[in-house]
Amino acid sequence: MFNSNINNYKRFDRSNLNFLQKWWLDVDKINFFFVIFMVAFGAIMIISSSPSVAERIDVDKFTFIRKQLIFAAVAIIILVAISFLNLKEIKLLAIIGMFVSLLLMVYLLIFGFEAKGSKRWISIFGFTLQPSEFAKTFFVVTNAYILYSFSQKRFLFNYVASIALLIAVVALLILQPDFGMTMIFALLWSLQLFLFGLPMLLVFIIGFLALCGGALAYIKFPHVQDRINRFLDLDGKNYQADMSIDAYINGSFFGVGPGAGVVKTHIPDAHTDFIFAVIAEEFGVLSCIAILLIILFIFGRVVKKASKENNMFRHLALCGLIMQFILQVTINIGVTLRLLPTKGMTLPFISYGGSSILSMAICFGLILALTKKKYHDNIDYGNTRMI
Q: For residue 277, with 0-12 CB atoms within 10 Å meaning exposed, 13-18 middle and 19 or more buried, which class applies?
């Protein structure tokens, strides 16, 4: 009887588990499977939407499909690998990633290729990457680390360091120029400072500066002015948004069927910025609602975990990362519904794009790492110490 109890204890003793078993017990499996589902569903939508786009630009109709499947496989590997990290490794990854992203943003200003009036992409081994997409993820974690680490050491030093980081990123974005991404960085930064305890006076000052910046961008940047005018229908050229609305109407509740949609043959960015309109037409509005409910469920789970965190770094990092995700979703879907000006923002894990899916894999890998149940800090999956 005594030996039997010992054997049962050993069976459930975590010190006897390997690093994969420990990871599986601690990771948020619900969010993990929902992310995998979105990646798989995204691959299906690329198979449906991209051949017509490829035909329009006279390339092999399977080009986008092959690339997206490669991106998806690499993204899942990155997602899982990063979710193993402990707190110290997360901070180190964020700092190194932020530094490399800044270097790449400088590099693209010199050697990057221009498209649609700006330099945002660099070519690596035949693939195009947008450094600012990766910088976005590393920025929120690095900023959380700055605010948390320096808050007790020197008065206002954390704010100064945080502002300096923002200015460095914004300066490089404006030189591209990429005003939309600049606004996203500013919003994420403002959210983290607000959660950290920014005085209300500074909140109003930041809001006023943001309004002034928006007005200045409208005056100084022709492409910003063009997008705003098209959104307000001042020149009658909002063709893609009009076609997107038609797709929602044509799809009705249940859709016309996979592959049977026609909007993808008319919208140049059907496989990227307007893929939600393709989903609405082929799978119906009810399917769109189901996807939104999944996204909101993921958002709610992460926010709930963040609200229970006693560690300020984890709290700020989780809030920044999940807001990055939900902000991107809001902008993408808002554009397809003609509620927002065209931005060129992909739908996470579903739209075509290497930079988008890889950066989101890093983002959710960090979220999974920060929300593990037992092994938050100082974990070494190779030893048996528990905290």
A: buried
Q: CB count, 10 Å around CB of 93?
A: 19
**For the chain, how many structural domains are there in total?**
1
Question: Per the domain annotation, does 69 fall within a domain?
Answer: yes
Walk across the sheet containing 113-115 and list its strands.
113-115, 118-124, 127-129
* 47 burial level (CB within 10 Å; 0-12, 13-18, 19+): middle
Q: Is residue 315 part of a domain?
A: yes
Per DSSP (E only), the strands in the chain are: 113-115, 118-124, 127-129
Residue 70 maps to a domain: yes
- How many of the other CB atoms lie within 10 Å of CB of 119? 18
**In terms of Cα–Cα distance, which of 99, 120, 69, 79 is closest to 354?**
69
Cα end-to-end span (Å), the chain = 31
Instruction: In whole angstroms, give the CA distance from residue 8 to residue 229.
Output: 70
Could you read off the pLDDT of 25-58 as tens digits, one per residue? 889 999 999 999 999 999 999 988 888 888 877 7
CB atoms within 10 A of CB 329: 23
Q: Which two tokens stand for residue 285?
A: 């509005």
d(CA 286, CA 278): 13
Please give the C-alpha separations between residue 280 and each of 199, 256, 267, in angstroms, as whole numbers.
43, 9, 14
Domain housing 78: 20-370
Residues 6 or more apart whose Cβ sits within 8 Å of residue 373: 25, 26
Phi, psi of 119 (to 5 degrees): -105, 105
Is 52 a member of any domain?
yes
Over the stretch 222-235, which tens digit does the pLDDT of each residue have? 666 666 666 666 55
127 phi and psi, to 5 degrees? -110, 140
pTM value? Answer: 0.86
